[in-house]
Amino acid sequence: MSNSIIKVLSAILPVIVMIYVGVFLRKTQWISRKGIDDIKFLVSRIMLTVAVFHALATADYTGKTAILVVVLFIVELLTFACGFLIRPLFRADRAGYIPFLMSLYEGGMLAYPLYSNLCGTDALSKIALLDISGLLFGFSIWMGMLQQQEKGESISPKALIMSALHTPTFIGAVLGVTCGITGIMKWFLAQPVSSIYLGCEHIIVAPLNAMILLAVGYDIDFHPEKIKEVIKPVIWRLLIQSCAIAVVIFVIFRLYKGDLEFIMAEVIYMSVPTTFSMQTYIRNPEGCSYVSNTNSIYMIITIIAYAICAFIYHMA
């Protein structure tokens, strides 16, 4: 077996194994739902926040970065708008969820660990830069309209701001961008004392991939009787996001001269389902199940896309 094939398998199999371990733990109940929720809390509140902060604080910010963020924000808006255009194709009691299923990406709990497993944690800043637009769009238009739909309330800018300020990952992203743009982090890393910070950062972030993938696997719950119902939104998201990926790849080729790691980050990031937190805002149990099953089925596409990226990355 060639070294290239071994590298590809070493990038794909650990991901599949950890996801299956999560599925196994759910079926056997060796870890309870509360246990997994505690793991998610630890990951999202501490580990992921530190990872996002460090990645963005050590990223390079140029005019290209601003262009990329703006382009991705426009792409988020367009994919969201496409969801409204295709709503008439779905049942009335499901149509309201379609725009939200067509847009936004589960970056922190899925794209980040997949990408860092492939390209290493040192390259995490590239996918973190892509996620800036997702954070901005997610905590403004996307979340505002979802809350309005579920609660029947008008969008409150104050409520959105307060929600963002109570989300550690968002705070970590803002602080990271601030430290990166101002150059504070680069200055700090040049100091001898930075070795203490780097040691702490490494030990906090090291278990991130395994714990996230385990939690993702635990949440995968296929219901065969509902697969037929969720195939349509899965196919539509695949078609819409495929067009979006093509547009962003073109932009990255123009801006970064075909940087392979940036392209891998973009493809993986835009191949994941919508944010898993969507289920927490849905009040209707049937609607929540519909969204959960759609995301679970879309995970198959995510794994296939990741496998293709691993093949291209290690064969290049």
What features would you describe in this structure?
This protein has 316 residues and is mostly helical. The protein has a single domain (3-315), classed as Na+/H+ antiporter like fold (Up-down Bundle), CATH 1.20.1530. Helix content is 81%, strand content 0%. It has 16 helices and no strands. The longest helix has 33 residues, at 224-256. It is globular. It starts with a helix and ends with a helix. The model has no long low-confidence stretch (mean pLDDT 88).
Write a brief structural summary.
The protein has helices spanning 3-28, 33-57, 63-85, 92-95, 98-102, 107-119, 124-151, 157-165, 168-182, 184-189, 194-205, 208-219, 224-256, 260-269, 278-281, 285-315.
Key structural traits:
single chain, 316 residues, Na+/H+ antiporter like fold
Cα-atom radius of gyration = 19 Å
Number of strands: 0
Global geometry: globular
Question: Pairing-aware structural class of the strands and helices?
Answer: mainly alpha
Mean pLDDT over the full residue set: 88
Specify the helix fraction band.
over 70%
Q: Please describe the biggest sheet, giving its number of strands, its sense, and whether it closes into a barrel.
A: none
Q: Which percent band covers the strand fraction?
A: under 5%
CATH class: Mainly Alpha
CATH architecture: Up-down Bundle
Order of helices and strands: HHHHHHHHHHHHHHHH
Give start-end ranges of low-pLDDT stretches. none
Integer count of domains: 1
What is the distance, rounded to the nearest whole angstrom, between the alpha carbons of the first and last residues?
A: 17 Å
